[in-house]
Backbone:
């Protein structure tokens, strides 16, 4: 959603808003820690967060990545800073594209700081933009109104130009170019800021463009001064006067700083200049939280904000996911991996999870799906269990809030499990390892602090749900019991995919949470169904095996965890009778993994609320309007009682300690005083519980009973301390004091020491710009044939003489026959002279040229064909003896013999016409 729209909506309802700025950390561990922090700070209720952009695009990939994760995995409305100078335009295009695809709709368009190595800003050669306004225009051209575009403002000047007024026309230009809100550089002086805003408005920046002050909470004196100097912002004199004397005491600086910054914010809000505060968090949570608490603007931990929790699970604001409104329950403790595995779904635009029978769950290898943390870190967290008993102890530790995560639950156990906690501890202490659960809720108000979600004045419902990892030997008995109860539906599956269920194969999703709201359809946001359970099974066992790999190959821990992951069954159970809050746990009565028996103490501290008592007593969580009040009263009573017990206990202890030196009288008096305090606290608790409505008497009674339990020796914790002391019961300690005084031995006190181990893990992430050329040759065969001029080589073969005999001799015979008729006779006639020109005889030479072409085809490069032809001339002298023609007899003109002889020597004597066929 556009920031301006979001702010306008809240401000129209009179709600002030605020936002948090983060920057990309330098180490991988820092990034992970920041994500965890951003996730937690989501609960502070920011209207949006923003992520800075490194000068010249340094670490820009991380900015894009953080925007994507914040937007999609943590559901935070995110604004990406983007600078436009000292960077190739392709980088700007890439960043805008990534922001768009991450579902981000807000950009803070900036010129950018000069890179560290440059003293002041100069436009680099080849960069497309000179001022932020150029970038704004570019974004508008490319993306239209998709992005809400924020711009930077400087109440006390920018760069070398310290005259803030001189910048105002340029600020106006940025708004005219398409900027829709102004984020101001940090300031600490209210008057300067208010005055500057007035001038901006006078310069024509419209009222509907929010001008947002930048607020830097104070962490330490040095960092406060450094930042103020760097941004050239004026620090009011009285601030320095208050902070300077305590500058070496960080805690005090933060405390006083909180008051000063809160005062600055309050004045701004009261002035009507702004209804939004922008916090430069410096990636830290505490000091920002302190200011918000001081201003009383953040949602109280025990209040329900429908904006923050429109559904029972955190919505993703990733690309196309804003309308997603149904999820399987299995990923409740692993929201990031659910988002990662479903990021390619295209079904969210329909507002529904789509056809659950064809979901394309992404691969298990995708980033963010595996086990978090290093092996060493995880071994520290989960120990090195070698027996099922030790695994059960680990799970009991998690259920009791002593272990902060499990392989399948990334966060500490939530308050929603409070009402089931004792049951969960019981199951785990018997080796029945619980993975996920929710209690039955029969119409809690949608504003309920624990179970509530969605719009105001609605009611929410839940079916009881339990997911548990079961030893295969226990499964048959459990299934037998589940099959006997009609209202129970279940699925059981193991690592190899063997599925047992009593849900018919064509059964659709089973809604396990739903809400009824004024003027709306019933909303059913959480479901259980087959296909997604099988996808969860893959992830579940994958995580189990990853856990086993945290231990070295040959270790017992590795073998044990692997065996559990490979052979135990993951079972999910829904009690469809949502009015029966105790339907599931009795199924496990008497079941236990062989040899597992973890000794646990009943929960007494911190659980003294109406819900625990009531659900354990078998009453459903209904009519919670009353229940909530009762819970509050009971909580309050219990808190007071515990406080009184602590004070009394401490006093007794003090008295008893001095009793060894002083007289028994002193101890007696201390004891009496303690008794008095305790009984007064008790009375107060009873009053509070007694004022609870009659309908919830059982709750109040139970609470009171627990409170009384607390006074009879149960451990309570001192808040805010890292070491937890036992707050010994008032009455009992008084008695002990007496005994101790007699024996002059100090009273026995229990010191439960909670050792909180916190490890800060640093990992250097070196951002190297590595240039490596990668060459790849694509072979493109080209049919390029160059036919070179044919080389002709001429050879003369020896002449072959051929004789073709076509004459069959018939003509000769005929002539001979005719000649035979001629015999000597003398008839002297006159010689007739003729002359004939015989036809020229042409010698015909037929030459056949055989061309044998050898064309080498070279596949590499250009194909060059050198064609050579050897012409071999075979001279053939062919004498063709054609068929003789008989041209008949022609009587020649008589000539003399001499003449005839002479003719025979060379002259033709007969006229022969070759064209005229012979007769
Ligand atoms: C809320 C906020 C967030 C910031 N986040 C980042 C960040 O993430 N990364 C980062 O590198 N820096 C960041 N900065 C710093 C910012 O980039 C620098 O202050 C930079 O020097 C100015 O950027 P701009 O967007 O205000 O530039 P512009 O508005 O373009 O102004 C740049 C300078 O040019 C002047 N100018 C503007 N237009 C004209 C004109 N037409 N003719 C002549 N002069 C003109 C201005 O007065 C100013 O001196 C941030 C600053 C603020 C206030």
Residues:
């Amino acid at each position: 959603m556009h920031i301006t729209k979001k702010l306008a909506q809240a401000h129209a309802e009179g709600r002030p808003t605020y936002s948090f700025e983060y920057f990309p950390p330098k180490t991988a561990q820092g990034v992970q820690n920041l994500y965890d922090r951003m996730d937690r700070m989501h609960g502070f209720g920011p209207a949006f967060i923003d992520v800075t952009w490194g000068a010249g695009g340094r670490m820009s990939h991380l900015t894009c990545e953080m925007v994507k994760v914040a937007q999609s995995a943590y559901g935070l409305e995110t604004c990406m800073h983007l600078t436009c100078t000292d960077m190739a335009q392709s980088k700007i295009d890439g960043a805008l594209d990534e922001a768009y695809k991450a579902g981000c709709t807000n950009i803070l368009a900036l010129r950018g700081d000069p890179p560290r190595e440059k003293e002041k800003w100069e436009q680099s050669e080849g960069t497309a933009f000179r001022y932020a306004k150029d970038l704004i225009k570019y974004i508008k051209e490319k993306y239209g109104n998709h992005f809400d575009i924020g711009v930077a403002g400087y109440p006390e000047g920018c760069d070398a130009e310290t005259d803030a007024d001189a910048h105002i026309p340029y600020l106006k230009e940025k708004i005219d170019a398409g900027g829709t809100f102004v984020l101001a550089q940090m300031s600490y002086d209210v008057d300067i800021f208010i005055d500057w805003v007035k001038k901006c408005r006078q310069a024509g920046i419209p009222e509907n463009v929010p001008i947002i002050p930048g607020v830097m909470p104070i962490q330490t004196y040095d960092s406060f001064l450094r930042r103020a100097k760097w941004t050239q912002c004026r620090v009011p004199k009285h601030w320095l006067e208050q902070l300077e004397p305590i500058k070496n005491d960080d805690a005090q600086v933060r405390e006083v700083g909180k008051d000063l910054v809160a005062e600055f914010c309050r004045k701004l809000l009261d002035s009507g200049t702004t209804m939004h505060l922008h916090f430069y968090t410096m990636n830290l949570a505490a000091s920002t939280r302190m200011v918000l608490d001081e201003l009383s603007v953040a949602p109280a931990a025990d209040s329900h904000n429908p904006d923050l929790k429109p559904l029972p699970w955190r919505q993703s604001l990733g690309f196309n996911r804003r309308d997603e409104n149904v999820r399987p329950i299995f990923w409740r403790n692993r929201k990031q991996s659910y988002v990662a595995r479903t990021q390619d779904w295209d079904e969210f635009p329909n507002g529904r999870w789509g056809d659950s029978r064809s979901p394309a769950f992404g691969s298990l290898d995708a980033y963010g799906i595996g086990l978090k943390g290093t092996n060493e870190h995880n071994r520290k967290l989960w120990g090195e269990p070698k027996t099922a008993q030790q695994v059960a102890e680990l799970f009991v530790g998690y259920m009791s809030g002593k272990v902060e995560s499990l392989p399948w639950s990334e966060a500490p156990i939530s308050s929603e499990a409070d009402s089931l906690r004792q049951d969960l501890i019981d199951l785990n202490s018997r080796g029945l390892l619980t993975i996920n659960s929710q209690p039955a809720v029969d119409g809690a108000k949608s504003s309920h602090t624990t179970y509530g979600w969605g719009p105001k004045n609605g009611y929410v419902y839940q079916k009881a749900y339990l997911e548990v990892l079961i030893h295969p030997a226990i499964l048959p008995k459990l299934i037998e019991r589940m099959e006997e109860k009609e209202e129970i539906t279940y699925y059981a599956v193991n690592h190899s995919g063997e599925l047992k269920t009593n849900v018919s194969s064509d059964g659709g999703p089973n809604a396990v949470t739903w809400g009824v709201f004024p003027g709306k359809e019933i909303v059913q946001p959480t479901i259980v169904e087959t296909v997604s359970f099988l996808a969860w099974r893959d992830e579940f066992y994958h995580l189990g095996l990853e856990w086993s790999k945290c231990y070295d190959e040959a270790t017992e821990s590795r073998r044990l965890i692997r065996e559990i992951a490979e052979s135990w069954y993951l079972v999910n159970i829904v009690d469809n009778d949502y009015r029966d809050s105790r339907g599931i746990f009795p199924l496990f009565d008497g079941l236990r993994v062989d040899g597992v028996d973890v000794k646990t103490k009943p929960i007494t501290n911190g659980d003294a609320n109406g819900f625990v008592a009531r659900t354990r007593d078998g009453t459903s969580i209904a009519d919670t309007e009353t229940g909530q009040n009762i819970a509050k009263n009971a909580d309050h009573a219990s808190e007071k009682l515990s406080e009184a017990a602590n004070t009394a206990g401490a006093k007794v202890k003090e008295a008893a300690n001095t009793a060894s030196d002083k007289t028994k009288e002193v101890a007696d008096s201390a004891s009496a005083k303690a008794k008095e305090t305790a009984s007064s606290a008790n009375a107060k608790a009873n009053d509070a519980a007694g004022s609870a409505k009659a309908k919830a008497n059982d709750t109040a009674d139970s609470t009171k009973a627990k409170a009384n339990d607390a006074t009879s020796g149960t451990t309570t914790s001192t808040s805010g301390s890292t070491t937890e002391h036992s707050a010994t019961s008032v009455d009992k300690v008084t008695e002990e004091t007496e005994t101790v005084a007699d024996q002059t031995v100090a009273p026995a006190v229990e010191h439960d020491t909670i050792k909180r181990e916190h490890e800060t893990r640093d990992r250097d992430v070196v951002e190297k710009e590595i240039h490596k050329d990668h060459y790849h040759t694509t072979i493109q065969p080209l049919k390029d044939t160059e036919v070179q001029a044919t080389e002709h080589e001429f050879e003369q073969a020896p002449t072959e003489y051929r004789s073709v005999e076509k004459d069959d001799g018939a003509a000769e015979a005929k002539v001979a026959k005719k000649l035979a008729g001629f015999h000597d006779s003398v008839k002297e006639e006159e010689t007739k002279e003729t002359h004939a020109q015989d036809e020229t005889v042409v010698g015909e030479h037929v030459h056949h040229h055989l061309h044998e072409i050898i064309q080498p085809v070279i596949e590499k490069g250009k194909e060059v064909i050198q064609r050579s032809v050897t012409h071999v001339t075979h001279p053939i002298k062919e004498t063709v003896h054609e068929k003789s023609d008989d041209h008949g007899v022609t009587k020649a003109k008589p000539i003399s013999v001499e003449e005839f002889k002479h003719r025979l020597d060379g002259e033709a004597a007969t006229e022969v016409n070759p064209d005229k066929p012979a007769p």
